[in-house]
Structure formats: C-alpha cells, structure tokens
Amino acid sequence: GIGGIGMSALARYFKRQGADVFGYDRTASALTSALQDEGMFVHYDDNPALIPANVDLAVYTPAVPDDLAELRHFRAGSIPLVKRAEVLGIISRSKHSIAVGGTHGKTSTSSMTAHLLRACGVDATAFVGGLAPNLGNSNYAEGSSDWVVAEADEYDRSFLHLHPDVAVINAIDADHLDIYGSAEAVRDSYTQFAKQVKPGGKLLLKYGLELAEDLPAVRFGIDHGDCRASNLRIESGYTVFDLTLDGAMPAMHFEGLKLPFPGRHNVENACAAIAAALIGGADPARIPAALADFKGVKRRFEYILRNENTVYIDDYAHHPAELEAVIGAARSLYPGKTLSAVFQPHLYSRTRDFAEGFAEALDKVDVLYLLDIYPARELPIEGINVYTITNTMHKAKVHYCSMDNVVDLIRQEKPHLLLSLGAGSIDTLVEPIKNALEHRD
Questions:
Q1: At 120, is the secondary structure helix, strand, or coil?
Q2: Could you tell me the pLDDT band of residue 300, with boundaries at 50, 70 and 90?
Q3: Does the annotation count 107 as an active-site position?
Q4: Is 151 a catalytic residue?
Q5: Which has the closest alpha carbon to 167: 82, 102, 246?
Q6: Which band of pLDDT confidence, cut at 50, 70 and 90, is reported for residue 176?
Q7: pTM over 0.90
Q8: Which one of 32, 61, 70, 106 is the catalytic residue?
C-alpha cells in the first residue's frame, strides 16, 4: 500500500535516510508517480516474484486485504513485517513528539502544527495525512530539530503505537464502527491514547469532549478553555480572532490573528495547533505571520476555481460531522448563493451506521449530485445503497449520478457554488469538473 497517504510519508522518510525503497500498490496514482520520480521502485501486480531479494524490512497498512499474495509471502518468511503505525511509533520514540488525533481535523491540525513550528524557529519533522503546500506540497517534511509532528490515526487502533510528549484530540465522534463496534469503544481507545502521553507531557483536549476517565488536560476551544479563541469575524477573506492562553498554559494573548480558512472548526484546529507549537518551543512573536501564511492541505476546503462567475471547492469530508462543517463554512462565506454538492459515500458500513446523519447534513445543500457508494476495502452490504441516505431527505434536489455522467450533468446545469465531497475515487473528478465549469457557454 505504498500509495496510501500515510505509507508514502514513511517511504519518503526511509528514502531520505538513504534506503532503497520498493513498494506495491493496487493502482497507479499521482502519489505513486511522485514516489517513482523521487527514486523509489513501485509495481502494481500483486506478485511475490517482483519483491527484491535484499529486503531488510517490510511495512504494510492494515487497509490491505489479508489475502494479498505479497503480504502472505512476508508472513511466511523471515523478513521483519510490521504495521505502518508501529514504524511511526519507533521513529517518533527517539524524538520529542506531537501526535494529533481525532475523528476529524487531524490532518489540518497536524499540518498547521508542523508549519507553525517550522516557521517559528523549530525545524520539526512531520508525517501528515495530506499534501501540504507549506511542507513542499508533501505529506512528509524532514527537520533538523528533535521534534516530530505525527498524525495519529485511530483506524485499527493504530495510534496506540504512539507515546507522545504532546497529544491533541479534537474530536471523538463514532467512526470506523466496522473496527470498534460501538461509540463507547471509540472513546475507550482515545482514552488509552491520552494515557500514553509521556510523564511530564501535555494532553490538549477540545473543550466539551469527555474521555472515559478524567485526565489532566489543556482545554482548547472557542470562548472556553485554557487556550480559547474569541471575537471571531470575517475580514477580507480571513477568519480573524483573538486568542487567550492561561490556566494550564503560560499566560499569553494575541489580538487579530488571521486564518485563511473559514469555519469554527478551523479556528478550533488553530487553537490546538498554536498551543502545541508553543509547547514545542515556537517563538510566540512569529505566530501571527505564520498562521496567516498557512496554506491548508490538499482536499481540505481547497479552492479549485474561484472567479466572479464560479466558486468550486473540493474537500475530503466523508463523515456527517465533516459534511456539516464544510457545508456550514461554505454557507457562511457565500450567504444567499445556491449551494450544490457532489458527494460520494465512502464504505457501505459507514453509510449504514450514519445514514440519518448523512441525510441531515446533505439536506443543507440546495442541489445534490449523489454518486454510488465507494466500497474501498468492503464487499457490498445487502440493502445498503445511496437510497439509504436519501429516504429521509426532504429539502435538497437530488440527482443520482455515476462517475461517468456527473461531469456532463454539471456542465449542463453550471452551478455557481459547488462542493465536491468524499474520500474515495471522487478526487479523479476534480479536474474534469473544473474544466466543465471553466468552459461555460
């Protein structure tokens, strides 16, 4: 799974250390092409004969199926075989680490934290779950300091391999119920992650979140907590706010901080990132300029097209809470405009588990172009389909679309404000949609 966003960051790390890096992925992508351009060797046939003879370490993602021939080859052999998260844990163990977890917001928050550190005097290494312009349009940045920022992935309880100096938790919504089984099990795992903070370290916990145990924490949020934003407003395309730190943080105050992204969730992410960066030694005087220069993450409220006729934004949102945040942010920036969205549900199990939440969130757009469910690692579940979502929707106008015809429909309807949302193959539609919207009659 070398083409995965987390795996490719590790591949880049090993390559920078001078290792020869080989990898398999099911399909070629822009990311695997980039890895090949960086000198790595990637193949796309699941064929153990293509594995080189001199491998010292094999790393795999738990997202790959157990019947993968190359995975079975390593399991039957003597070469060390470890999960991606275990390797990340080993790498971060030798440094001071900031691990950013949460069912939503961890990629934006980890990227922002790494950027703030690097721009404010701490040359941190970073492993993040998206391509960040401030990190050289990469998911990995090599630093010379003894600090590392890592995204802490809850899937398959991977984050329990991390023992950070600073842990951030910005959401504990139920997700990955195919792994956890219940919301309580999700919360229990986050509690265990929080308890793994090193002695003398800090837990940064969003105000209002409750773990299974009462642990000492720095609380961050809007109008509440030890690191709290206030006086939020929109000015010249920036979200502007004041920030006060006290209580469990050294007393500090910033006025008129500028964040180039909308939404209360992004302000909360910024609170966590600023607190974590300050704990890591960032120069407070340089925080305002660095925050204003944060360029976000690819597929996180990413402007694909923005002119007087059309605004097109692409986002990775694939959970109801994420959809609510993105749709709400778009509404706040463009009040009164007809809001259209293309959405591709991700996983049959997630569609089943959160059908009502999806319906409620998607009913807040005016026009919905709904694609078929992207199965990823799953087989279909009987009775679960896109109608599972729309059966309880009453407001949005819904077009049922395929990957083949949605671009033509968008070309015909010419929406002026459009979101594309999802974590599956919808990213392959971004350029075709952009081209359709650019060439209006």
A1: coil
A2: confident
A3: yes
A4: yes
A5: 102
A6: low
A7: no
A8: 106
